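R.M. (postdoc): so does anyone remember the format we settled on? I'll just put the structure tokens first.
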């Protein structure tokens, strides 16, 4: 059902969008998810694709995203052991929602050189 312009959004929709923003609004979440969509699998790949993030911050965010069901962590029994982080289908769906925001920010926000 399509709502007419000016029709108020229902309360449940407001709560859902606020919960979604609580997830993606945490610093580094968007860039980490976009890095995963660009093929990052290992910790060092994420670190390379997300400039400015520290190792402790990346570790924490990957754990939090795993707990939310957005990232899967797989231990590969090699020597040395490899840890792979991949996006879940839910995360891939979220990334497709983030891409327009990323494109908008590239077009409309000034480059921050700090």
């Amino acid at each position: 059902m399509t709502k007419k312009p000016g029709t108020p959004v229902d309360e449940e929709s407001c709560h859902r969008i606020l919960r979604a923003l609580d997830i993606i609004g945490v610093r580094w979440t968007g860039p980490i998810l976009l890095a995963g969509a660009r093929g990052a699998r290992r910790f060092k790949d994420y670190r390379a694709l997300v400039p400015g993030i520290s190792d402790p911050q990346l570790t924490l965010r990957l754990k939090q995203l795993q707990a939310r069901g957005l990232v899967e962590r797989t231990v590969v029994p090699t020597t040395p052991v490899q840890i792979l982080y991949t996006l879940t289908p839910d995360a891939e769906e979220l990334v497709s929602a983030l891409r327009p925001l990323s494109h908008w920010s590239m077009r409309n926000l000034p480059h921050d050189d700090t």
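R.M.: ...and that's the designed sequence above, right after the tokens. Also worth knowing: DSSP finds five helices and two strands in the chain. The chain has a mean pLDDT of 90.
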